[in-house]
Amino acid sequence: xxxxxxxxxxxxxxxxxxxxxxxxxxxxxxxxxxxxxxxxxxxxxxxxxxxxxxxxxxxxxxxxxxxxxxxxxxxxxxxxxxxxxxxxxxxxxxxxxxxxxxxxxxxxxxxxxxxxxxxxxxxxxxxxxxxxxxxxxxxxxxxxxxxxxxxxxxxxxxxxxxxxxxxxxxxxxxxxxxxxxxxxxxxxxxxxxxxxxxxxxxxxxxxxxxxxxxxxxxxxxxxxxxxxxxxxxxxxxxxxxxxxxxxxxxxxxxxxxxxxxxxxxxxxxxxxxxxxxxxxxxxxxxxxxxxxxxxxxxxxxxxxxxxxxxxxxxxxxxxxxxxxxxxxxxxxxxxxxxxxxxxxxxxxxxxxxxxxxxxxxxxxxxxxxxxxxxxxxxxxxxxxxxxxxxxxxxxxxxxxxxxxxxxx
Amino acid sequence: xxxxxxxxxxxxxxxxxxxxxxxxxxxxxxxxxxxxxxxxxxxxxxxxxxxxxxxxxxxxxxxxxxxxxxxxxxxxxxxxxxxxxxxxxxxxxxxxxxxxxxxxxxxxxxxxxxxxxxxxxxxxxxxxxxxxxxxxxxxxxxxxxxxxxxxxxxxxxxxxxxxxxxxxxxxxxxxxxxxxxxxxxxxxxxxxxxxxxxxxxxxxxxxxxxxxxxxxxxxxxxxxxxxxxxxxxxxxxxxxxxxxxxxxxxxxxxxxxxxxxxxxxxxxxxxxxxxxxxxxxxxxxxxxxxxxxxxxxxxxxxxxxxxxxxxxxxxxxxxxxxxxxxxxxxxxxxxxxxxxxxxxxxxxxxxxxxxxxxxxxxxxxxxxxxxxxxxxxxxxxxxxxxxxxxxxxxxxxxxxxxxxxxxxxxxxxxxxxxxxxxxxxxxxxxxxxxxxxxxxxxxxxxxxxxxxxxxxxxxxxxxxxxxxxxxxxxxxxxxxxxxxxxxxxxxxxxxxxxxxxxxxxxxxxxxxxxxxxxxxx
Lengths: 408, 521
What we know:
The structure holds 2 protein chains of 2 kinds.
Chain A: E1 3-7, H1 11-22, E2 26-31, H2 52-55, H3 64-86, E3 91-93, E4 99-102, E5 108-111, E6 113-115, H4 116-119, E7 129-133, H5 142-151, E8 156-161, H6 175-182, H7 185-195, E9 204-208, H8 216-227, E10 230-234, H9 241-256, E11 260-263, E12 265-272, E13 280-287, E14 290-295, E15 298-301, E16 311-313, E17 319-321, E18 373-375, H10 385-388, H11 391-406
Parallel strand pairs in A: 1-2, 1-15, 2-11, 7-8, 7-9, 9-10, 15-18
Antiparallel strand pairs in A: 3-6, 4-5, 12-13, 13-14, 16-17
Chain B: E1 2-11, H1 15-26, E2 31-34, E3 50-51, H2 62-78, E4 83-84, E5 88-92, H3 100-110, E6 115-117, H4 120-126, E7 136-140, E8 143-145, H5 147-160, E9 164-166, E10 169-177, E11 180-188, E12 194-204, H6 210-215, E13 223-233, E14 241-244, E15 253-257, E16 260-264, E17 268-270, H7 280-293, E18 302-313, E19 331-334, H8 335-339, E20 344-348, H9 355-370, H10 393-401, E21 412-414, E22 419-420, H11 421-430, H12 437-444, H13 456-467, H14 474-488, H15 494-510
Parallel strand pairs in B: 1-2, 1-12, 2-9, 5-14, 12-20
Antiparallel strand pairs in B: 3-8, 4-8, 5-7, 6-7, 10-11, 11-12, 13-16, 13-17, 13-18, 14-15, 15-16, 19-20, 21-22
Helix pairs in contact in B: 1-5, 1-9
């Protein structure tokens, strides 16, 4: 049985660990901190175009999608959707045509796949929209959304104040605090009783994406059935409840499949195997005060980019890959990393390591550094994920591709 | 065009102009001050917040040193609420000239700049992070002063004494009648309307723009501009102002201000008052020099940077291209004497610490010219304490601690600076037309902490749009975020760059703030 160590607990690492375990590998998942899912919107951005699958061929040569190919991207997404569906959290969407959803700013965002609760907010779906306001929730402002959406030609009929019972502390409550409340059945019944008289004539109600964690679909169904309306969610500021739902489902899946999860474990060393130093024989991990040595047949780096710690940018004009110190492609002068505006294309954002079509990190000689080392997700170079809207698509496709190559 | 008349018209709402207007108003003169943006937006708001003991200039510029020492005492009396008495240290690191401390110490004694040598163990007890290889250490009376508090107090004082302060009013032209300056044409930038202001005397207190101002009267002013860059480190690394005991140079000071420490300063000759671009070498130099004072400083997180322009009077043709060597003392220039134009005075240079003294000299001259016999009383008149330190973290925390956590209007909008929704709503209520998020930031300190507005921008934009009758403009949100972005760019590496990337995740991936192409860059 192949033993694979996956480093990183974000979307890429979790998905890779599950896929590898399903294919019969023995998997260890080492996470230094919490992965980046709590910062995401919970949707799968494939490419910010109206028809992503048709636009893939127009991407530059070094874009990660060019390495994985369209087939792997499609398979990866369908694998991901299967996993989510089996966990009772189905995603809808098409790779051939983007959907447009309302953001918490009232702008329109394109994405390819969304959990059905979010996808129901697709602005091209029928049914006039009403937004619900949770008084005192500081991360959702429906009246502003209504005004901004009007500029984009989306009509929101009205905003209705919806009372909640036993509000979380108004002062500093986040989405997650509200999501915990919705998990409570009795609390929900009480809230439904309070809301019912407030919603006559409402067909489609938009709420902040806080409708529970593991029981989300049940909660949504419960609210919709009892109130006789359609409800959709709008993701807001981190911590993201939809992102955390994915994290929870993938972790549960991983554990069910026998993946050994080591939390709080940073890689502090590499054990080189023979075959002329081209093999990683194992890793040294540091976890809660002790050091563990693990043998590996295959290692997958899924440590993320600049935000998540896979890439470390330094004052000395260097961007370093944090585990193996692999060569990172980036502009040589740090003043070229960041553009004049937050909204511009940033050179640092597409910095990263280069891999071949097998997802093996390349050395400066453009040959694989190690035969059994693979990389996927945010630390790969060649894509401006925020502006091109391709973050989760790359994570899934490269993770899927890397596992297939690694276990071949 | 409407017209108004006054006795004294002051151009420029920095410490110099406000100080002059305050002094003039106290002496019973009719005074109007105009400022093209907001108060303290030029050099006055772009320094390290140091109330000089005088030590810095003891050897290089004795006049300024003596003025600083005496003004330091006065400001502690008249504006204590703007000052945090941190005390200051002058320390000699192994990199500094060995003979300097003794020469410096005797100069201090001669100039009445209080300084006292302390033992290294006493120094390290007080500031444990300082370089243990420091060989000499002297205690001085430096302090940290909040120039915005000071400016606000001055505005309040001016208005209480009948003076008028007009913000967002720009000088368009100067009107002369033969050899006299008689009026100024002014544009109200928020409405676009013009205004003619006749005045008995006009004071040019426009700092780095002084040359532009005199040019409107056909006068060429010999003014040198020196850019100084500063870095705010994200932690309060010291509780005392720490100076290098060596001739003034780049990166010779660290000032604790609230929750941050400010490392200063470079001095780069520039041509324009708007040349505020920060070079990577300046940042590297400041961190390297700061690291000599506080080993490890360069590895701690820089929060943001800014630059200010020092206006320095350079009367004779000098071959010295360095602005560092120019004297820091101020000049009150009577253009009747230098250029034959009556009723026009330029006030140039000086330090924030000596603003009151500059004002006294200027208004003495004004009174002379207007033949008014009124003595200066600013040295003994306390400045109004407009709002106390309401925005400081301790007082905000105190307020929150005693409040009902479920009070519905008190969500924390900005976690870093503990700005609540009611603080923001109050500021919005009092706001004048044209107030944007960046103006609110200056009033509330919103967005100035470690996350540099990543979270509060969305919330404050939403709250202000919900209250406004106008359709929301994402431009305001984008501009606000970009204003923060600009100051972080020069220190964009490590955790600072991670923070910037988090903001991009929020405003691009999550909120698609760039989707309205009309509004966003």
